[in-house]
Amino acid sequence: MEKEESENYTLAEAIKEAQRCLHCKVPGCKKGCPISNDIPDWIAELSKANFGNAMSIINAKSNLPAVCSRVCGHERQCEGSCVLAKKGEAIRIGKLEKFVSDFDSEAGWRHEAIPEKSRGRVAVIGSGPAGLTIAGDLSRQGFAVEIFEMEAEAGGVLKYGIPEYRLPKEVVRREINKIERLGVTFHLSTTAGKDFTVDDLFAQGFDAIFMGTGTGVPKRLDIPGIDHPGVRQAIRFLRRVGLYESGSMSRDEVMVAEGDKVAVIGCGNTAIDAARTALRMGASEVSIIYHRDIDKMAALRAEYDEAVREGVKFLWNSSVTNIVGGEGQRLKSVTVTSEDNSFEMPLDRLILAVGSVPASRIVSTTKGIEVDAKGYVLTRDYPYGMTTRKGVFAGGDVTNHPATVVHAMHDAKLVAEGIAKYIDAVKLMQSIQ
Ligand code: SF4
Asked: 85 CB less than 6 Å from ligand 1?
């Protein structure tokens, strides 16, 4: 597999690009950022080669800048809202953020004093973008935070869901190390609902618990032949490729072999990730089959453009209506139907990328946490993010609020404020009783 695709600025290039910024009084870039990153301020520091100051300003709003700089949809967010975008000359904010965060990591500077953990104890279940954001924010505010992660490595979807060529695992590890240096403790290979319950955590003295467990159960489609082993879920395929790349799984277990013909149903970022990853695993042909038109796809335009450039074919307004199994784990063909056409497509593997819903491990082992009809955890606005069980909070995909990594972070930042307010209020009440 090839390594990371996007190139980095040299020091001189980064400063030159930063010096193009107009430092607008009402900056569109900041408005376009879901976490209101103080973009003009850190770009100003960068333009004067004050890298440490630039990093400190970024850190104040984001726990995962090296991740955001690589996977955010900048063209729809900060860069798309830059005043210079109208002339097609938007400041390359994502690339500058990548430069600052990578430069900082390589230099190994520490910019923050770690506060004493005296305000309370918080357990975070899940170490994806929401869990890491909660942990970073609360740790900076003087809470003792412990993260419980079911996988052998932390990172959740960042580690096991986004391919190496878009987000190198090393970058995720670096960001996690930064959060560890804030005093956060990680418990790995520890599954909620199996190794411990929410009640166990309260019994251990945690003041609040955050569920950032994401959506681990992929949706399926009701198509004849869907249960054939040649049909697999995109998130499981991407996870297997990630494990293969880290040496924890053999090549044979990665379900797409050299020369395979592969189709992916769906057209979000996960579908494009799966299609491009299948090509990198040696697939001879990869098609994306989507039941709507191109302007309805959820994927980022830049990701779509890259997929087209690499040779992925797109079948719009089309659906798979039948699946014919072949020998062993392989398929023989699928029937592809559009409004005015229907044909047999020879195929070895079909990958589903049509969304996912939360697993019920925590909810089924804990009393009092209500979910909606689809299994998403219900939360309230005050304190923000608290579930129907007192002291238990939820955020990120498990609540169905966010759509991307940075939206999960935005939601988690609000929940972190809710948790801090809740613990402070409980402790105040206890002190006056
Ligand atoms: Fe700089 Fe563009 Fe933001 Fe204005 S909108 S401050 S030019 S990055």
From this structure: no
